[in-house]
Amino acid sequence: MRIALFATCLADTLFPEAAKATVLLLERLGHEVVFPSDQTCCGQMHVNTGYQKDALPLVKRYVTVMAPYDVIVAPSGSCVGSIRHQHAMVAAKYGDASLAARAEDAAARTYELSELLIDVLKVEDVGAFYPHRVTYHPTCHSLRMTRVGDKPLRLLRQVRGLDLVELPAAEQCCGFGGTFALKNAETSTAMLADKMTNVVATGADVCTAGDASCLMHIGGGLSRLRTGVRTVHLAEILASTES
Amino acid sequence: MTTFLGMPATAPRGVGNLRGEQTFPAAAHDALADSQLRRNLRHATTTIRGKSGKVIAELPDWQPLRDAGSAIKTDVLARLPELLEQLEERVTAAGGVVHWAADANEANAIVTRLVRETGSDRVIKVKSMATQEIGLNEALEEAGIAAVETDLAELIVQLGHDKPSHILVPAIHRNRAEIREIFLREMPGVDPALTDDPPVLAAAARRYLRETFLSTTVAISGANFAIADTGTLAVVESEGNGRMCLTLPDTLITVMGIEKVLPTWQDLEVFLQLLPRASTGERMNPYTTMWTGVTPGDGPQNFHLVLLDNGRSAVLSDPAGRSALHCIRCSACLNVCPVYERAGGHAYGSVYPGPIGAVLSPQLTGIADNASLPYASSLCGACFDACPVKIDIPSLLVHLRNEAPHPRGERAAMAAAARIMDRPRVYAAAQRAAKLARIAGRRGRGLPPPLSGWTAGRDLPEFPEQTFRDWWASR
User: Fold this and answer.
1) Does the residue A128 lie in any domain?
2) May I ask the CATH architecture of the domain B24-31+312-403?
3) Interface predicted TM-score (ipTM) of this complex, two decimals
4) What would the pLDDT profile of A185-241 be if each residue is shown by its tens digit?
5) What average pLDDT does chain B have?
6) CA closest to B386 among chain A residues
7) Å from A194 to nearest chain B CA?
8) Is residue A135 within 8 Å of A206, Cβ to Cβ?
9) For chain A, how far is it from start to end, CA to CA, in angstroms?
């Protein structure tokens, strides 16, 4: 299958390993990956900070750049959530009805990585090998906006060598929330402290998730406290093999 | 012919409890440093979450019930004027008197006048969000009328000269040791040997309240629901103190937000299932009191219903924001909110705290007066899933952020970021420039505001050797 990658601005700029892993994983499974180079950002930061009008060109860009592709994947439950639940709203409000319809259409062709693997490509065992103790944090937007459910866990359970440990209070937010982490830094840090306590309590070496943003937040805290636990994107675990 | 009354007004300033003195981040700062408060909140919200989750799981039709609740509320708001006029007609026919209050000042004046007319200088109160919202107790006090709160938690708040911090459990921020101290200091005729054993504390409140119930002739209540079709009012509660207030006095004055009306008696079936399970985690609340006007020889012989707008029509006028008026004040969104759990209710500055407060207060007052509240959320979405009437609070927050006044510097930075992100080549150049700046700068700490908020508690990631798009181009 020919799959267009929406890398997301964050993975493109700061966490290229997550986007690279998505490419390598899908190629290993026998699919063709294309990266339309005129893509940039989904605009979620603008929408969620109160700048919907500024997000309009980014919505238009996504819709236009992705128009030729039947299947689009992003290694982020949050960006996919924004594309699905916000793009058409912004397009209708500041653009026009035709853009809104095209945004709906593009959103319907856009999948978060675990959704693509399980719902579209019908694969649970991706042939990965990752000999580490891992705990999974279901990010809020993947859980409650994109609704990936237990798909990431089903993929992780098939990874050879991987010791999956349950994260207590997993469904609680890590406190990132985009610009929330800056505007309400103290509340955000208090939420992060509880998340880190739970991550450390699992005894895992690695905390994984489907969003580089939340991992940046949790990882930034774990690093500051020198806990020795590292954060790794789900795509990187699924991409790793024995060889 | 219709009369145009002008655009609906927001809740007036200088009266009531919808506006805080500080922004949310400033108010949250103190709460976050209070370790006792953090413990109280965590314990209380975790307990209620557990109870509520258990009884909700028992119902096979919880989701259809939520859909029904949402649909009924949407219908109510779509024909609110008609339903309110019907309610007025039926209440009047049943022997009650209906008063219309455009705002907090009008409502306070009406209630004060009605109490004065009875000649009483004391009233008993059923816990009521609407009267807290309009600052009725303060208004009565100015008129020389003492208002005694009879809900146990509300009494604790009142005796402590404090403010409620939760819709359902207003004294959630107090533990039993603190409650004992408040009772010893403030409760008339309290036993000086009072301990902090919960049954002992409850018995002390009971003795004090019983004396008050039996010697006060006027009560003031709120209402959970009003049935337009029959003119029936309903109050649900757990303690029975509400039942005392609603049945013992000669005069009952009910202050109700105009959005509380339901079309028919049958609609109650949905809400009496939704509310207790979402709210207290009970299958059924212990006391449901319903009354229709006045019944000769039984219960209050004078009944007044004050219909309160106080900004609600303004909320209704925004189709994108009006679903905040669906709220049935269950507080499920507070109990699941990670921000509420850390910052506590006072940080929201309004009688309506938590996620629903963050979308309701700014709409009632106008966004300029509560501009920081829509940002008091990580948009985690737990509130939407918990809401028994399916209010999409995250989308409302995003909508209100779009309406909020923005700091000038932020506005410029956001516009610049959007311009860069709409030009892929400039964007790629900016990515490389950011990397260079980072290498030249210091590792992760001591960044200027607003980034200092990040680096106070977290490291920044290392910039990678190569962006993804550079790697892709080099393949």
Assistant:
1) no
2) Orthogonal Bundle (1.10)
3) 0.97
4) 999 999 999 999 999 999 999 999 999 999 999 999 999 999 999 999 999 999 999
5) 94
6) A144
7) 10
8) yes
9) 25
